[in-house]
Design brief:
Elements: H1 13-28, H2 38-53, E1 56-60, H3 67-77, E2 82-86, H4 89-106, E3 113-115, H5 125-132, H6 137-141, H7 146-159, H8 174-179, H9 200-209, E4 213-217, H10 218-226, E5 237-241, H11 246-253, E6 256-259, H12 260-271, H13 277-295, H14 307-328, H15 338-360, E7 366-373, E8 376-383, H16 387-395, E9 399-404, H17 411-414, E10 422-426, H18 433-436, E11 437-441, H19 453-468, E12 472-475, H20 479-490, E13 497-499, H21 505-514, E14 519-522, E15 539-542, H22 553-562, H23 566-583, E16 594-598, H24 602-605, H25 609-613, E17 620-622, H26 625-637
Parallel strand pairs: 1-9, 1-10, 2-4, 2-5, 3-4, 5-9, 11-16, 11-17, 12-14, 12-15, 13-14, 15-16
Antiparallel strand pairs: 6-8, 7-8
Helix pairs in contact: 1-2, 1-3, 2-3, 3-4, 5-7, 10-11, 12-13, 12-15, 13-14, 14-15, 19-20, 19-26, 22-23
Length: 664
């Protein structure tokens, strides 16, 4: 649009909405294969109206809508600073590498943007200086990577402008990166650090503070909320993309995690500041005792204070207090790097003390449990309900746009929004799912909880993959099921079968995309954030409806709160959202064709099946394998093959209406 027509900051909803849709049409016309997307325009208008009216918006934008441009254009035109929080690195990279540079080139209104990550993603000049200085031999001896790797990292630090780990040519060993970076629990801040003036993390924060659009990870936004708004620069609009993950991420970032590793790290930090081997040993032993007592409760929820756990934590707190006291006795201006190390020790010890206090006083609104992380048991405490935190820290502070390709019914209310404060909208998808895809439910298979299910599912999957000629993404709800299926089908198929363990993630996706005969078997990490358009993917097979485990402590607590409505309020929305995400891997462009095969008969027989089906894309549906096999074979011969009529016994008209005879 003409620069003179750019709306002012104080433009009302209609004016900003008109400008947003006109501008969006103009800039998308410059995209390769440009086409009008009514859902994208409707979303842009709704985002503009929400920002202008300072009213929250919850918008479901199906696959192919182009939702990132739909919220970026009105946000930029509004003149307000916006933070976009994404749940996956894939989307963050898309925004930073494609969408924002494209808009910077083609929008008439100039704007700036920045990517901001958590502090531990940036190299710490002070830690590097300490490791490469005199007297660092003991620390270097503990690095498996060795001095040569450290020297390469130091050379990179001298020439990089960002200090961002993602900009390295090769991934450094975890122990080495841990040694040259700091997290928020130990960083004392730029003003108290000798290297604060050249800090990469602080430079990134400064760039973000001066930018109109800031892109962050959803976990970083959660940390921002948990710290009362202390992490991100002031902003007036927040866009939460992939908002179906908001509740779980906020629960994690607002909670506490306590394990032996934090005591080992504090002991290591203490050794560099205080010449007291007994004190250091006491910290290590405190961590070991904690790990030992937590191991007895692994996989369990702590419904009430456990005397043994409480005693160990109280003793551990005393050891941390002793370390802090000894550190405070060291002069702040101690020679060499001792002063900087002392400040990090005080910061880490103070944070650990606060977390120890938190686990000693778990509120009724929180849940505590023990789970294994890596090789060690970890005690976690998290809020059962995040609505209050979101209402106060997010919705009460900034205009918020929540968006995702899949948002189950009731999302707004579960997050603390009401009809008086938020607009809820579904703009659909530009794809013609009724002609592009077939949803097949193998209703003849045994119940997935029965002993004969695995063998029957393997037979079913083998027939479908053979018909597709490979070209299958098989998604499993457990690692055990994935490995068992892969082992069995490798002996029965003539086409290659890869599992998620065989190659690094990107190499897996590249191999799968380039070889149409290959099938990829994977678990939860591949149910979302995987984009493989084209004929390499013609079949998405899902072994079970992805209901959460009944013994997950946080969900147990939510079920108890929901009482009789627990299944409808807790389990069903979670399973429906994840299933829709998995189903969404199939159709990624207007030319994609294929079959989604769900091997769980409950999608066809359970009383709640229509609550799930209505959330899925409006595909044709069938219960009969021959329909799926016929379509898959047709696609092998012609990737543009039209969806053939389904068997009369299982015919189902497309759409999201209620049940009719023969539908799953």
């Amino acid at each position: 649009m003409d620069p003179d027509q750019t709306p002012s900051r104080d433009s009302g909803p209609p004016e900003l909405a008109r400008a947003a849709t006109a501008t969006l049409s103009a800039v998308t016309a410059r995209l390769p294969g440009a086409e009008q997307r009514p859902g994208q325009l409707a979303m842009a208008a709704a985002v503009a109206e929400a920002i202008a009216a300072e009213r929250h918006l919850v918008v479901q934008a199906g696959t192919g809508t182009g939702k990132s441009l739909a919220y970026l254009v009105p946000a930029i035109l509004s003149g307000r600073r916006v933070v976009v929080a994404t749940a996956t690195r894939t989307l963050q990279d898309q925004l930073a590498g494609n969408d924002l540079p494209f808009l910077a080139e083609h929008l008439d209104r100039p704007f700036s943007f920045a990517i901001l990550k958590g502090r531990s993603n940036y190299l710490c000049h002070q830690r590097l200086r300490e490791l490469t200085g005199e007297g660092a031999q003991q620390e270097l001896a503990g690095l498996v990577a060795g001095r040569a790797a450290l020297e390469r990292l130091a050379a990179w630090a001298a020439r990089t402008h960002s200090g961002d780990r993602a900009d390295l040519d090769e991934e450094p060993p975890p122990s080495l990166w841990s040694a040259v970076s700091v997290g928020p629990r130990e960083c004392p801040g730029a003003t108290r650090c000798p290297s604060g003036e050249i800090c990469f993390a602080e430079r990134a924060r400064a760039r973000a503070a001066a930018s109109d659009v800031v892109v962050v990870n959803l976990h970083l936004y959660g940390l921002h909320l948990a710290t009362g708004g202390a992490v991100l620069p002031h902003h007036e609009v927040a866009v939460i993309d992939e908002a179906h993950q908001l509740e779980e991420v906020i629960s994690a970032t607002a909670g506490v995690e306590l394990g032996a590793g934090r005591f080992s790290a504090l002991a290591h930090a203490t050794r560099a500041v205080v010449a007291d081997d007994t004190l250091v040993g006491d910290l290590d032993r405190a961590g070991a005792r904690l790990a030992s007592v937590l191991a007895d409760h692994e996989g369990r929820r702590l419904r009430r204070p456990d005397p043994e756990v409480t005693e160990v934590i109280v003793q551990a707190r005393e050891q941390v207090a002793a370390a802090l006291s000894a550190a405070r006795a060291v002069p702040a201006d101690a020679p060499g790097d001792v002063g900087a190390r002392r400040m990090r020790l005080l910061q880490a010890g103070t944070t650990l003390t606060e977390d120890l206090d938190a686990v000693l006083d778990v509120a009724p609104s929180e849940v505590a449990w023990v789970e294994r992380v890596g090789t060690q048991p970890v005690l976690r405490v998290a809020p059962v309900d995040v609505a209050e935190l979101l209402a106060e820290g997010l919705f009460g502070q900034v205009t918020t746009v929540l968006t995702s390709a899949t948002l189950p019914p009731g999302t707004a209310g579960r997050l603390g929004l009401t009809a008086a404060t938020a607009t809820v909208l579904d703009v659909g998808s530009p794809f013609d799912f009724a002609t592009q895809a077939l949803l097949y439910c193998a209703a003849h298979l045994p119940d997935p909880r029965s002993p004969g299910f695995d063998d029957a599912a393997h037979d079913e999957l083998a027939a479908l993959v053979e018909a597709a000629g490979g070209r299958t993404l098989a998604l499993f709800t457990s690692r055990r099921a994935m490995l068992a299926a892969a082992e069995e089908l490798r002996t029965r198929l003539d086409t290659p079968v890869l599992t998620q363990d065989d190659l690094p993630r990107q190499a897996l996706i590249d191999t799968f995309s380039s070889d149409e005969a290959t099938s990829l078997f994977a678990t939860m990490g591949f149910w979302q954030g995987v984009d493989i358009p084209g004929p390499s993917l013609s079949l998405v097979a899902i072994d079970r409806l992805p209901f959460p485990r009944p013994d997950e402590p946080l969900l147990q607590a939510r079920r108890e709160r929901a009482r009789a409505d627990a299944f409808r309020v807790v389990d069903l929305p979670r399973a429906t959202t994840l299933l829709a995400q998995g189903v969404g891997r199939l159709i990624r462009s207007r030319t994609d064709r294929g079959v989604v095969a769900v091997l769980d008969r409950r999608l066809a027989t359970a009383r709640y099946r229509w609550e799930i089906v209505r959330v899925l894309p409006p595909m044709r549906r069938t219960r009969h394998r021959e329909d799926a096999v016929a379509f898959l074979r047709a696609l092998r011969a012609d990737p543009d093959a039209a969806l053939p009529p389904v068997s009369s016994r299982g015919a189902a008209a497309p759409g999201r209406a209620g049940p009719s005879p023969g539908r799953p």
